[in-house]
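Field guide to reading this record: the first block holds the primary sequence, the second block holds the structure written as discrete tokens, and the final block holds curator observations. Each block starts with its own label. This record concerns ABC transporter ATP-binding protein, catalogued under organism Devosia neptuniae.

BLOCK 1 — SEQUENCE
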Amino acid sequence: MSVPVLSVKNLSIDYIGDETDFRAVDDVSFDIGPGEFFGLAGESGCGKSTIAFAISRLHRPPALIRSGQILLQGRNVLDLDKEQLRKFRWSEVAMVFQSAMNSLNPVLTIETQFYDVLHTHLGMNRAQARERAAELLKLVDISVDRLKSYPHQCSGGMRQRIVIAICLALNPKLLIMDEPTTALDVVVQREILQRIDKLRVELGFSVLFITHDLGLMVQVCDRIGVMLEGKLVEVNGAHDIYTAPQHDYTRKLWASMPRLHGEQIRQGAQQ
Ligand SMILES: Nc1ncnc2c1ncn2[C@@H]1O[C@H](COP(=O)(O)OP(=O)(O)OP(=O)(O)O)[C@@H](O)[C@H]1O
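BLOCK 2 — STRUCTURE
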């Protein structure tokens, strides 16, 4: 692989308790290459989101990073001070959360929400921000008329695409998506992931995609890491994860998925 965009090295994260600490992430290492679509799979509670939050430096107590490094283009994210962090977020790493479509401010128009990011980080005035926002909405296939709308006037899928457009505003190197489409129906979910995939090719960013839905993951990812109880137990190409899983737990994950879904996946993996 060429020089990775992201290198997670021997990362261990505890949640500090009154009596004992709980190890949520245990000595995890993986790389994501330039333009790569990398997935982290595993059942609920295995530590996926804890890793995502740590990469964005959004983790808060009781989460405590015990050891390891998170290198973004060679720079350790864990060493950044407040000012460096402000610049790092959005411009280097942007994160779409599980409930992202509800993260838009309900009392502000879509235009103002773009303006807030573009003005704060790039010093754009209203007119410049409007122009850039229109370009960004186009990327996610939303009409520029929507700039005047409030979030409640947009559908869930549309709101999710707007959040993604805002995330792309500063051309991040890495887009982290933590269950970004879970609340949406499968057709909209697929459309959004296809759109992200296209943008990734056009704009060149890398993606860390987190979901417990291994079936969905093999359809869109280049490589997949499978987590079990805080440990990364297997990392492999998406096709291999489906056709030749190496770890017992990966095989169990497949066995637990409905057969119909499996057939759809087979088609997706062969496309
Ligand atoms: N604030 C917290 N305090 C204590 N323990 C926590 C906290 N947040 C998460 N955990 C625990 O850390 C473990 C990892 O959680 P995490 O949210 O990273 O898992 P996940 O794989 O992303 O799960 P999900 O798919 O349900 O989001 C879980 O056992 C969870 O209960």
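BLOCK 3 — OBSERVATIONS
Residues 260-271 have pLDDT under 50 and may be disordered.
Residues 6-270 form a domain with the Rossmann fold fold (CATH 3.40.50.300).
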